[in-house]
Amino acid sequence: PEPENFFEAVGGEPTFRKIVARFYAEVAEDEVLRPLYPEPDLGPAEERLRLFLMQYWGGPHTYSERRGHPRLRMRHAPFKIGPIERDAWLRAMRVAVDEANLPEPLDKQLWSYLEMAAQTLINSWT
Ligand code: HEM
Prior knowledge:
Layout: H1 6-9, H2 13-29, H3 43-56, H4 62-67, H5 72-76, H6 83-100, H7 104-120
Helix pairs in contact: 2-3, 2-6, 6-7
Bound molecules: protoporphyrin IX containing FE.
């Protein structure tokens, strides 16, 4: 059967699991990003991002069952996010998305969303 939506088209949960795990492996080694994460264990943050992205792309709504409305601008307000942090986030995510080897149109669709979302989360210009 044809995939119903983007979530299914990219391969469902295993694909998101792989991308977000790879992303957090980059975060763990990144001198700009790592200090922003308040918890010593990145595992819970990894799970929140994975569940959010799965829900956004048409997968299960587990994110909102656990966390409520995403309100990403509000949830990022405690962290100073300027262009440097945005670029570091996108660099780590680019590594992760590259490794998933998605077909080009799906890669492009995912990437435009992530670039746009990262831009909207900038909350500091100093
Ligand atoms: C949470 C940083 C962009 C989605 C967080 C946290 C930090 C952070 C430090 C807290 C870790 C946690 O406890 O979960 C950043 C930085 C970004 C960025 C520096 C650069 C622009 C994005 C983007 C998305 C996103 C583009 C979505 C496409 C999330 C989600 C959470 C989160 C879903 C967990 C929210 C919750 O339920 O508490 N981010 N983030 N972030 N971020 Fe980002």
